[in-house]
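Troubleshooting: if your tokenizer reports a length mismatch, compare your output against this known-good record of 294 residues.
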Amino acid sequence: MKVYVFPGQGAQFSGMGKELYDNHLKAKERFHQANEILGFEISKIMFEGTEDELKQTKVTQPAIFLHSTILAEVLGEQFQPDAAAGHSLGEFSALVATGCLNFEDGLKLVSARALAMQKACEITPSTMAAILGLEDHVVEEICTTVQGVVVPANYNCPGQLVISGTVPAVEEACAKLTEAGAKRALVLQVGGAFHSPLMEPAREVLALAIENTKFHTPRCAIYQNVNAQAVTDPTEIKLNLLAQLTAPVKWTQTMLTMNEIGITEVVEVGPGKVLQGLFKKINRDVVTSSASIG
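Known-good structure output:
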């Protein structure tokens, strides 16, 4: 079973997509189309931007989406997934790559989501923290003892869970989790509390955008973040995509589910190699690689 996976926020780097732009006409056309749709030269920021420019949510999310979806399109017949999945933002990339969404609609959705999330971040000072070396249930239990909003947000792999919430609550949780034996409790440099109830103000904007977008049956099953299950029904995909905004990313559970049904190969489509490393923590026998144009 060959699975294609698509990375989320944090995988960006200056120069991303430049090789595609320089060597493939279709890619060049897509980047120009993206600049028109977004109303600014995202390609220039991707190719030449500083780290600070690239980590703005309104830039980061479309940039990673573009790198992933354009690469998948250029792969052409080489892109042969038995299943697909994306981490957070990467779920949108997976949906475009498998034909559930067209490129233009996917980019508009990602842009609307990014802008709405950025506005939500500005309402309440909030953050995220990576907790390493504790079992998930311990992190979950300790979060419930903290005053204020702090919840599990990204189940990345066994022993690595990201929490999300208001700044004071996350700081208190980090202190308690360190006392409980966490190897590290590292506050992340992010714009806000993604995948938490604090993203609720963005829901209405995203719900309207999703409702006004045409979804198709994907060419293969998509393992979605909110339930870690294979989904092909467009209506169910839409509901899960909206729920993902305030619900945790169940990536650990997704990988375990895939492992149970016999995954043999993982191809990461887009910037970075983070997802390949996470799969190796589940099953060292899985063959992992980055998608490349041969």
